[in-house]
Amino acid sequence: MGAMDLEELLRLNNRNMIGFDLALGSAAILAPSETLQVLGHRHPTADAEALFRRCGPIWLTFAAAHAVAHLRGTEKDWAALAWLRGTEIATDALWSGSPGFERESARWAMRAAGVSNLAMALGYGFLSRRVRRSEAAALASAS
């Protein structure tokens, strides 16, 4: 896979993550119990439901960051998105240890989300450097 193919794949992933985080954040706020069950969590207690609902605005912030990177696409946008995804590398893996996840497949899915966040952090960091080189080349040719 060439660099251009990788860039296209990362940009496609970014667009998909806008929808994913928008859906997850909205569902966490509007229907936390049902959303947790879709994710493989047993029927949550009231405090687990409230904590999960609290995460909704976090995921909506992720959706906004993905949208900004898609629309503006500056070096700083991609770097910020890489950093943001990096903050999530261990959270889902840690959450997979919750006693609420009774199915082993749900636990593995949560761990895989951590791997996905690592891949996105590295990929969006790559895009940041690639955009920086493009911006520098454009600036040099304009001089």
State the major sheet. Answer: none
Secondary-structure class: mainly alpha
Strand content: under 5%
Tally the helices.
Answer: 6
Task: List SSEs in N-to-C order.
Answer: HHHHHH
How much helix is in the residues?
Answer: over 70%
N- and C-termini, Cα separation: 34 Å
Number of domains: 1
Rg over alpha carbons? 17 Å
Compact description:
With 143 residues, the chain is mostly helical. The chain has helices at 3-30, 32-38, 46-71, 75-86, 91-95, 104-142.
Account of the 3D structure:
- This protein has 143 residues and is an all-alpha fold.
- It has one domain (3-142).
- The chain has helices spanning 3-30, 32-38, 46-71, 75-86, 91-95, 104-142.
- Helix 1 (3-30) crosses helix 2 (32-38) and helix 1 (3-30) runs antiparallel to helix 3.
- The longest helix is centred in the last third of the chain and has 39 residues, at 104-142.
- The chain starts with a helix and ends with a helix.
- The relative contact order is 0.14.
- The mean pLDDT is 92.
Task: Provide tags for this entry.
single chain, 143 residues, mainly alpha, 82% helix
Secondary-structure blueprint:
Blueprint: H1 3-30, H2 32-38, H3 46-71, H4 75-86, H5 91-95, H6 104-142
